[in-house]
């Protein structure tokens, strides 16, 4: 899954590597584990940017610095990443980074533009608007300790990683 082409109803939507949109409006991400036929489920998110950050984090963990040219947001990689992480650790790191971005983006949107659980199109923000905010950087660098409240709102699709 290199680009999100399926499930997009609006040709104006920005497409991110490793991200696709469900019929009901959630943005999801998964990635193939190199050398296997396995896919690593990275989660469901309210915004495509959050799903893209999850994909970037996992891609970097799995393929290392050589993947930098294929990242959606190369400046957003958490600093705590290691090359020898287990698939479960990669999922956790990707989820923590994405939830921080999801929470920040959702907080920035006016109430009438917040993502909902239907086919409504999520408004997009410029990358500089997202990443200039110190909150996002501190959330991603500190790990998931301060985003545990958001982690409690995991959707049913996320349960696939536990089964």
TrEMBL record:
Gene3D superfamilies: AP2/ERF domain
Residue span, AP2/ERF domain: 15-74
Principal localisation: nucleus
Signal peptide positions (record): none
GO molecular function: DNA binding; DNA-binding transcription factor activity
Pfam families: AP2
Keyword Transcription: yes
PANTHER family: ETHYLENE-RESPONSIVE TRANSCRIPTION FACTOR ERF020, ETHYLENE-RESPONSIVE TRANSCRIPTION FACTOR ERF042-RELATED
Family: Belongs to the AP2/ERF transcription factor family. ERF subfamily.
Name of this chain's protein: AP2/ERF domain-containing protein
Organism this protein belongs to: Nelumbo nucifera
């Amino acid at each position: 899954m290199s680009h999100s082409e399926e499930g997009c109803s609006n040709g104006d939507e920005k497409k991110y590597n490793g991200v696709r949109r469900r019929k009901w409006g959630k943005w999801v991400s998964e990635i193939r584990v190199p050398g296997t036929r396995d896919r690593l489920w990275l989660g469901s998110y309210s915004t495509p940017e959050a799903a893209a950050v999850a994909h970037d984090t996992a891609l970097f963990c799995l393929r290392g610095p050589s993947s930098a040219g294929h990242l959606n947001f190369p400046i957003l990689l958490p600093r705590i990443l290691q090359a020898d992480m287990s698939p479960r650790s990669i999922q956790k790191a990707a989820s923590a980074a994405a939830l921080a971005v999801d929470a920040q983006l959702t907080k920035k949107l006016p109430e009438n533009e917040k993502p909902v659980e239907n086919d409504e199109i999520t408004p997009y923000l410029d990358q500089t608007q997202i990443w200039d905010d110190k909150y996002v950087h501190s959330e991603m660098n500190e790990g998931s300790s301060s985003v545990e409240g958001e982690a409690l709102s995991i959707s049913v699709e996320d349960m696939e990683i536990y089964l």
